[in-house]
Amino acid sequence: MHYCVANMPGAVPLTSSEALNNATLPFGLALAGKGIGALADDAGLRAGLNIHRGMITNHAVADSLQQQFTPVAKALAA
Questions:
Q1: Which of 2, 37, 41, 42 has the greatest CB tally within 10 Å of its CB?
Q2: Using CA of residue 30, residue 36, residue 41, residue 47, what is the dihedral sign?
């Protein structure tokens, strides 16, 4: 059985906060240590990039705004 409700973290706030911290801290540390260069080493960080230097690097965002999409590699090279 699987049970998933959007507001369930409210029932266990400390545990959910710790889980969120544990999941996101490595990304924050990578960005703090390497800056934008961290994206070159981590596909997950690259996938989370939506806009860089005014260029939209996420297809869904570009489509929803009816704007031009720019691949991440091209945006980072600019």
A1: 42
A2: positive
Q: Distance (Å, rounded) from C-alpha 65 to C-alpha 42?
A: 27
How many beta carbons lie within 10 A of that of residue 54, not counting itself? 8
pLDDT in tens, 41-50: 899 899 999 9
* pLDDT per residue as tens digits for the range 3-54: 677 766 777 788 888 988 999 999 999 999 999 999 988 998 999 999 999 9
Q: How far apart are CA 27 and CA 39, in angstroms?
A: 10
30: which 2 tokens? 């990578």
8 in helix, strand or coil? helix
Q: Are 67 and 51 in contact (CB under 8 A)?
A: no
Cα(15)–Cα(22) distance, integer angstroms: 10
Q: Rg (Cα) of the chain, in Å, rounded?
A: 16
